[in-house]
Amino acid sequence: MGFPLSITLRVNPIACVGHGMCAELLPELIQLDRWGYPILSSSTVPRPLADHARRAVQACPALALLIADAAGKHR
Fold first, then answer.
1. How far apart are the first and last CA of the chain?
2. What pTM did the predictor assign?
3. pLDDT at position 42, please?
4. 56 closest CA partner among 2, 3, 4, 9
5. Nearest to residue 57, comparing CAs of 27, 36, 26, 33?
6. What is the distance between the alpha carbons of residues 34 and 4, in angstroms, rounded to a whole number?
7. pLDDT along the chain (75 residues), means of 10
8. Using an 8 Å Cβ cutoff, are 36 and 20 in contact?
9. Residue 73: what pLDDT?
10. In b/e form, how buried is each residue of 27-45, taking b as 16+ CB within 10 angstroms?
11. Using CA atoms, how far apart are residues 66 and 57, in angstroms rounded to an integer?
């Protein structure tokens, strides 16, 4: 299953507990603040990083990392 042309990444700050796994899997777009919570350098996911973004979303133990397509549908 491929991704649409434009996908975005977002973090649910309520669900996030700061495991930091997302930053390890997608350091090109996610850095951690001093408490270990993710900060997105960009919410738009470049096409070459789409598979990495999907893996980071699937690996999030708190289900706090989300991908939305151009229509705003979350995956």
1. 12
2. 0.82
3. 93
4. 9
5. 26
6. 34
7. 72 96 96 96 94 96 90 58
8. yes
9. 58
10. eebbebeeeebbebeeeeb
11. 6
Q: What is the three-class DSSP state of 73?
A: coil
Question: Which residue, among 53, 60, 40, has the nearest Cα to 69 in the 3D structure?
Answer: 53
Of 43, 38, 6, 12, the C-alpha closest to 25 is 38
| Residue 60 amino acid letter | C
- How far lies 73's CA from each of 26, 37, 49, 68, in Å? 21, 24, 19, 5
Which two structure tokens, joined as six digits, stand for 11? 């973090």
- Whose structure tokens read 């899997």? 25
Tell me the one-letter amino acid at 8: T
The DSSP line for 2-71 is PPPS-EEEEE-TTT-----HHHHH-TTTEEE-TTS-EEES-SEEPGGGHHHHHHHHHH-TTS-EEEEETT
